[in-house]
């Protein structure tokens, strides 16, 4: 006999039918839900009814003000029961007798579920998950193609939570926050459908809508409590929209989620997000650019800033190519000496390649001169005025904004000229001095290309060789203020005007 639970046929079309719980009949004004499933095919109707049932159960619980039974627990029950059946908990899968065993077990579960709910035809979700698992197992044994019902598929929100937990140790808290915002927006846009059902058309629709958002959409503290529709009403079409660079960040997060789920066989087929990633042509983009000599002289011209870090942190970056976070996190213990050569021991890097040693440039002798000799004092930050901030407690958190304000006060308003531009300046100096790329990579903390040097000589250059590379970073015509001029480390030649 065909399974017609939750089904009703009118003329030639199948309808979903569900009895409204007695406690909700007054609120809904009806005793029964009847909705068209849009098909005349019984098997298709039997498949679609579960989505309808899950949707209405969610609505019922929302009306009651309760949370629905944990969907993840229901899904895990289904998967566990299916695997146990495959592993033989019902006995050896041989002959008709095994079919009877499956059928008897299903019947027992139905009776158990009906006793638990005390309603004919109604079974609690956990018991029902076991029944469906055994039914799908029986279908597998008959050689039929079985597609897991949507109610047992991992939703976008469920997948996102597990994915973020899995990569928690690999990303910063700031990155996690960005990923959480991306997944929350996408799940809301898609009504938290099963991740496996997301298509390339879905991805395109989401990214097209998101691209119209103002770049400031995420700055309000109320953003987390707003739906995608609310954010769209507030920010879509207001301003220039999001850049491709920003969209690539969202695409990277969603693509990573899909790949993680695919490795666990929760989804299949082509990654729906990959084709939307667009490489940025740095020469034609509005990315970061080096400061000009005029910019640098304006930044380091008198009067001195009230806070010396606005000169000192940039100078370290300018003469080493270090990232802002790397400079700000330095303690005096990170300034060490080997074979008479002072160097920075960089451990707080964003990648494995970023963990490196960089000789102190001759232009930074003033920094070495301040280094304390006491063992206790060596553990102190070089710039204690830089207080930790942001989700990761980074000492660079407040420096980013402070330097932006200082830069603009010196007349440098180009959006492409930011703190990261100092790193661009250092790399520009190295290339124009004809420094081989693998040697420059050791200084600025990039992965070496190819395996020859990266694999067969992991120790890289000697400290003396590294110092020679660093000395190639020079800015003829740069006027440094009193107290920050060259010559205190290694007898470097001054380039002050």
UniProtKB/TrEMBL annotation:
It holds the Pfam family DUF6538. One of its GO terms (molecular function) is DNA binding. Belongs to the 'phage' integrase family. The keyword DNA-binding applies. InterPro entries: CB (IPR044068), DNA_brk_join_enz (IPR011010), DUF6538 (IPR046668), Integrase-like_cat_sf (IPR013762), Integrase_catalytic (IPR002104), Integrase_recombinase_N (IPR010998), Tyrosine_recombinase_XerCD (IPR050090). Residues 286-471 form the Tyr recombinase domain. This is Integrase. Residues 154-262 form the Core-binding (CB) domain. The keyword DNA-binding applies. Keywords: DNA integration, DNA recombination, DNA-binding. GO terms for biological process: DNA integration; DNA recombination. Signal peptide: none annotated. PANTHER family: INTEGRASE_RECOMBINASE PROTEIN MJ0367-RELATED (PTHR30349:SF41), PHAGE INTEGRASE-RELATED (PTHR30349).
